[in-house]
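## retry 2 of 3
previous attempt timed out at serialization; input unchanged, resubmitting
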Amino acid sequence: MRKLLAICMLALCLPALADQRLFYQPLNRDAALTPVQWQQLWRATVAQGGKTLIVQWSAYGDSDFGGAQGWLANSLRQAHAQGLELVLGLYMDPAYYTRIDELDSDGLSNYWKAQLGRSLGQYQKVREGWQLPVAGWYLPMELDDHHFRDASRRQALYSQLQAFNRQLDKPLHISAFSAGKLAPRVNAGWLEQLAGLGLKVWWQDGAGTGRLPALVRQGYEQALPCQVGVVREAFRQVSAPGQAFRAEPAAPALHGGCHEEAVFALRYRPWARGLLPLN
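## retry succeeded, writing output
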C-alpha cells in the first residue's frame, strides 16, 4: 500500500508528457477554416492536454490576418473560450532571415531596433483593438549562435531586449536554435543571461531540421539551465537546402525533466490533419 501511494505521489509530481504548450504558426490559407472547424480544432487540442497556445505572429509583412475582427483574432477568441491560454506573437518581417545574413554588426543592431519598433506598434494595436485575454507575448525573430556568435552582437541584443521588455504588460517569450557556432556552455550562458531579463527563453531541439547530429544537439540541451524551456519539433524536414520549406509530421521527443516543454507545431499534430494544411 505504501509503495502504491509513493508511486501515485510520484506520478502527480511528474509533468505529463503531453502537448501542454503548442506553437501555432498562422498562415493566410488557414482563413478557409469555418468557425465550426476552429472550434473542433481547439476542443481537440484541449482534449490532447493542450493548455497554452503560443501564436508565432499576429502580423506577417503586410498581412495582419484581418485585424481585430479578422479570422485569426476570431479563432483565438474561440481558442480561449475552449480553455487555452494565449501567448500572442507580434510582428514578423518575411525577409528577416535574408536580412540578418546580409548585415554587419552595426547594421544588424539597427535592423533589430527597427523591427522591435514594428513589434511594439503591433503590441499596441493588438492590446487596444483585438481585446484578447493575452497571458504573454512572443517575439517571432528567432535567435541563433551563428548570427550572434560575436559577443558584442549578443550584448547589443541584450540591451535592446531589456528596453523592449520594459514596455510590455505581460511576459515576453523568445526562441533560439543552435547552429554549432558557440560551445554548448557558452550558448547556455547566453540564453541564461537573456532569461535573467525576465524573458521566457525557448531553445529549439533541432530534431525536425536535423542540421546538427543528434549527439551534438544532445550536448547543447544538456548544458541548458532549467529556466530555459525546450521546443520539441514535431516534424521532419523533407525539402532540400534552397528549396521552399516542406516537412512531414513526426512524434516530438517529449522528455519531461526540469525544462518546460513546448511542441512545434500544431499544424503537424494528428488532430489537426484535414484542418490545417501542412505545406
